[in-house]
Amino acid sequence: MKEKLTALQTEALEQIEQATSLADLEKVRVAYLGKKGPITEVLRGMGKLSPEERPVIGELANKVRGAIADAIEKEKATLEEAALNERLKTETIDVTLPGRPIQVGGPHLLTQLIEEIEDLFIGMGFEVREGPEVETDYYNFEALNIPKDHPARDMQDSFYITEELLMRTHTSPVQARTMGEYKGSKPVKMICPGKVYRRDSDDATHSHQFTQIEGLYVDKNVRMSDLKGVLNQFAKQFFGPEREIRLRPSFFPFTEPSVEMDISCKVCQGEGCSVCKQTGWIEILGGGMVHPKVLEMAGYDPEVYSGFAFGMGPDRIAMLKYGVDDIRHFYTNDRRFLEQYHQA
Questions:
Q1: Which residues, in sequence order, are CB contacts of 262 under 8 Å at separation 6+?
Q2: Of 53, 56, 110, 172, which sees the most CB atoms within 10 A?
Q3: 164 is in an annotated binding site
Q4: Tally of CB atoms within 10 A around 89
Q5: Contact 208, 200 (CB under 8 A)
Q6: Phi, psi of 52 (to 5 degrees)
Q7: With b meaning 16 or more CB within 10 Å and e meaning fewer, what string describes 239-261?
């Protein structure tokens, strides 16, 4: 048995040395180390040997199998290296060919616009705050003086998840959360940009998802004239120094008094055209003095503190500033549209 194992090792090593390809090497491996190979047969016949021979023959069989396996792995590495070198000789790369162009993206038009507005208000001392898009009924409505029977509560206007959770319909809840966090301990001067959601039919001027930027300033002795000054500064810096503004009476549950702000039409310079519907003015945002009930619910004494709030839609502002005629262009990811507004 010893002689047979020694002869198998010598024979296998010779065939391994003579192998000229990986396929030949695999045939040798199967022939000698496979399930039906001679070494496996020796190991299966160990039961026929005497107790004295079994450990000797078993140890020798394992050594022979190990020697053959090591030789195969060594030869395999040699053949693989030779095959790679041969392939490198036949394959060439033309390094003079131009590379594939890389499409470089950029910030979305609305992102650019929101960041521009943020920078403007940060320059006036406002901080930027954020809040959850899935909001509670309390912060979205009640903390903003919107009672249960208010039309804004209608299911046609809001995406309710449960009776107490909904997709926020405006970014004003961030103002309520911030005032509630401070609990009347210090002034608030902030803006809060973000996405909002309403049950609306999508068309050229409406979308079920859009963006808003709300602003809030609460402190002692804040007046309506302060609101007008901030909004006038915003309009002139953002739309141009020649822009004029006007404030019209309006109504919002969370401000009293409330106003709508218009800017003079840049197309006709206030003379009247189709863009401004012959009025010379374009509505841009709403605002007013924070309602005393809103201050009180947030922990501020309305006898000591006052404040103003305003809200604008970056989507609408972008449409006016860049002459975009359909709000859906912002959300359909048409590269032909978006690439017009890439920053350098």
A1: 245, 246, 248, 281, 282, 283, 284
A2: 172
A3: no
A4: 8
A5: yes
A6: -70, -35
A7: beeebbbebeeeebbbbeebbbb
pLDDT interval class at 8 (50, 70, 90): confident
Cα separation, 107 vs 122, in Å, equals: 20
Provide the token pair at 282: 């374009």
Comparing C-alpha atoms, which of 108, 127, 109, 107 is closest to residue 118? 127
**Across all residues in the chain, what is the average pLDDT?**
85
* CB neighbours of residue 269 within 10 Å: 13
Determine the distance from the C-alpha atom of residue 191 to the mean position of all C-alpha atoms in its chain, rounded to a whole number: 21
Assess whether the previous peptide bond of 55 is cis (omega < 30° from 0): no
Arithmetic mean of pLDDT, 82-104: 81
pLDDT of residue 255: 94
Cα–Cα distance for residue pair 168/195, rounded to 1 Å: 8
Quick one: tokens of 339?
């690439």
